[in-house]
């Protein structure tokens, strides 16, 4: 039947329907149903309600599969697993859209209308399937890459490898056609060559630029020594950004540069040393025990960091020097106890200390300038193994121990059960000597031998840190 004849017939049908009121009933019946002659992907849906139509399309779409063949292997997948789906709602709307026009009701009696399923794509899922298919076929290529070498001293290149990808006409087009026609399909995958996006030449150029940065000297002087950043350190500052089609210029991590500069600065910084001096009641300094020494702290670490980043970014080496701020030292002042000026140690008021007089072979314990015990006769080091002189401090105590050492002739000695030892200079201690019957002479290996009761008193009297002044 020609188009002209169909139109005439439709008009002939429509006129009586309108005149007789039948058209109104016809339109009401098909208001939300597929018109006569409606098909979806070749299957009739005439008269189906919106819900029934959606159900029919959904069921057919769920049954559609695509079998993919590649070499001796094959796999069958549903549409959704291949990144393609049927938009059921959009397909239903396409079927029912003519219902809005009165002429469509009339022409539906004498004509048919086929609607393809509306297809949607999940490009990410589709790409993932393509990648999987290529890898399974052993045809994957690879872009060239630039990475830090295992030794961390330079950047190296992994060359590009030319690969293949799935020809869209043998996969994507077939899957889309199967979805649009709601018909399962079988296809044999074809592969086409793919040129790597990032070439080996581009990677080599980027690596060379990064290694040039690493090769430039970066050194900072602390005023005495120059500290040069190692290749490994500089390499840790550098990164090679990857762009869509290659690599960008090497970049520097300013925070990492700053961390290195800060470490150099911290090593060069000096903590101030607090001085200790004894003063008399008038405030005059009578003795300096520890000299006060100013400290220093780096003042330009941030500026040096910026200078390093700027120099390397300008393809230049860099040498700089730390500048410092002075950290003034402080003094601890102790007032000498009245009368201590004439003693071997200028003790502060209330300070405990021990006087070891090697000429008199006596030991005296003091609190400030006041005698707490003594003088008590002792046995100090013999001429061959003399006791040391100077100002010391008790640093270790042991109530009972075995002492070992060397005699003047080089032979070894061992003395068990030595009581109440207070060590103040290496292996030299004030301790009890129960093996001696008399005291007041020089005969020991260097230690100060005391009566056991005196050694016990000293052990209890003098805590760790107590000054010991040994003199002739």
UniProtKB/TrEMBL annotation:
- Ranges for domain L,D-TPase catalytic: 352-471
A GO cellular-component term linked to this record: extracellular region
The annotated pathway is: Cell wall biogenesis; peptidoglycan biosynthesis
Q: Does the keyword Transcription apply?
A: no
Which InterPro entries does its entry note?
A: LD-transpeptidase, LD_TPept_cat_dom, Transpep_catalytic_dom, YoaR-like_PG-bd
What is an example of a GO molecular function annotated in this UniProt entry?
Answer: transferase activity
| Name of the protein this chain belongs to | L,D-transpeptidase family protein
Which Pfam families does the protein's record reference?
A: PG_binding_4, YkuD
The record's Gene Ontology biological-process terms are: cell wall organization; peptidoglycan-protein cross-linking; regulation of cell shape
The residues the entry assigns to the signal sequence are 1-27
PANTHER family attached here?
Answer: L,D-TRANSPEPTIDASE (PTHR30582), L,D-TRANSPEPTIDASE YCIB-RELATED (PTHR30582:SF2)
- Family annotation (CDD domains): YkuD_like (cd16913)
Active site (UniProt): 431 (proton donor/acceptor), 447 (nucleophile)
The alphabetized UniProt keywords are: Cell shape, Cell wall biogenesis/degradation, Peptidoglycan synthesis, Signal, Transferase
């Amino acid at each position: 039947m020609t188009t002209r004849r169909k139109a005439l017939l439709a008009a002939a049908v429509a006129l009586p329907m309108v005149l007789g009121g039948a058209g109104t009933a016809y339109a009401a019946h098909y208001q939300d149903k597929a018109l006569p002659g409606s098909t979806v992907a070749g299957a009739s849906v005439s008269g189906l309600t919106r819900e029934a139509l959606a159900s029919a399309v959904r069921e057919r779409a769920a049954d559609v599969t695509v079998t993919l063949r590649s070499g001796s292997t094959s796999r069958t997948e549903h549409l959704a697993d291949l990144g393609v789906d049927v938009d059921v709602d959009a397909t239903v709307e396409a079927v029912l859209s003519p219902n809005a026009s009165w002429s469509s009701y009339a022409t539906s009696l004498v004509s048919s209308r086929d609607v393809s399923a509306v297809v949607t794509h999940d490009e990410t899922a589709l790409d993932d399937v393509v990648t999987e298919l290529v890898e399974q076929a052993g045809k994957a290529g690879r872009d060239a890459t630039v990475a830090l070498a295992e030794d961390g001293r330079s950047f190296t290149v992994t060359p590009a490898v030319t690969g293949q990808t799935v020809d869209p006409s043998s996969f994507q087009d077939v899957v889309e056609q199967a979805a649009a026609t709601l018909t399962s399909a079988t296809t044999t995958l074809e592969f086409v060559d793919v040129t790597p996006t990032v070439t080996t030449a581009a990677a080599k150029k980027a690596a060379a630029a990064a290694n040039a940065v690493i090769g430039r000297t970066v050194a900072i002087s602390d005023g005495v020594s120059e500290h040069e950043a190692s290749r490994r350190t500089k390499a840790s500052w550098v990164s090679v950004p990857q762009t869509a089609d290659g690599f960008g210029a090497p970049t520097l991590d300013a925070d990492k540069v700053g961390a290195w500069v800060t470490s150099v600065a911290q090593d060069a910084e000096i903590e101030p040393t607090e001085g200790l001096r004894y003063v008399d009641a008038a405030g005059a300094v009578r003795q300096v025990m520890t000299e006060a020494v100013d400290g220093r702290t780096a003042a330009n670490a941030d500026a040096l960091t910026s200078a390093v980043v700027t120099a390397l970014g300008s393809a230049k080496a860099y040498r700089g020097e730390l500048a410092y701020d002075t950290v003034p030292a402080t003094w601890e002042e102790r007032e000498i106890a009245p009368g201590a000026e004439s003693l071997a140690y200028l003790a502060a008021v209330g300070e405990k200390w021990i006087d070891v007089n090697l000429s008199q072979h006596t030991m005296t314990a003091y609190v400030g300038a006041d005698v707490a015990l003594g003088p008590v006769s002792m046995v100090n080091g013999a001429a061959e193994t003399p006791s040391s002189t100077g100002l010391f401090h008790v640093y270790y105590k042991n109530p009972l121990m075995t002492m070992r050492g060397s005699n003047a002739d080089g032979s070894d000695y061992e003395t068990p059960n030595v009581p109440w030892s207070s060590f103040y200079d290496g292996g030299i201690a004030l301790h009890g000597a129960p093996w001696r019957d008399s005291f007041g002479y020089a005969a020991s290996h260097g230690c100060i031998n005391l009566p056991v009761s005196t050694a016990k008193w000293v052990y209890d009297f003098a805590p760790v840190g107590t000054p010991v002044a040994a003199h002739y």
